[in-house]
Write a structure and sequence with these properties.
It is a single chain. The protein is of the alpha+beta class. It folds into two domains: 2-26 and 150-182; 40-143, no CATH class. It contains two helices and nine strands; from the N terminus they run H-E-E-E-E-E-E-E-E-E-H. It has helices at residues 2-26, 145-182; strands at residues 43-47, 55-59, 64-66, 70-74, 77-89, 94-100, 105-112, 118-126, 137-140. Strand 5 and strand 6 form a beta hairpin. Helix 1 (2-26) runs antiparallel to helix 2 (145-182). It is elongated, with a radius of gyration of 22 Å.
Length: 183
Amino acid sequence: MKTIKILAILITILGIIYYQLDKRLFYYGRNDLHIYNLLPLNIQPDYQPPFEGGFSLRQEDGFSITGKGVAYPVNKRTVWINRVLKYGYNAQYLVAVVIDSNRNRYHIKFNQNSKGSSEINGTIEIDNKPHNSNLYKWIDIDGNEDYIWKLVLYRNYLMFTIFFLLITLIYIFVRHKKLKSKG
């Protein structure tokens, strides 16, 4: 019975660690649990393989900012986004730093329109001066590939370890019940 308690406690602790890693991976669009809603305007980070567009910021109504040469009309201009470098958010706004096909860097600010859905703000800024970085919590997409892959790897190892321990716990519990009913 002591083994069952130890395994249950270990599974709980590992489950909490798994949840925290998955929650951190949410910001990079690589989470398994789709229970988080931490960004303003109901925008969800999403990761696809690079040939499918790479990292994107999507809203439930289909609005998204994604890479791989997608054109966006902003302030009577068309910007061909090649890659999302990073994004910053606070309680009301989300700002994406993107690079276009000409390697120009832009800040694109998301707003909520009068209908309640997201849209890109009517202004687009060339990255001569960055946004006031103190107003936003920034998530660096482009420079964190190794960090992201390590988190994914740790999370996946935890998932398999939890699964193995859970099967072991069930086996020991059933075995204990059978021995108890025989004796």
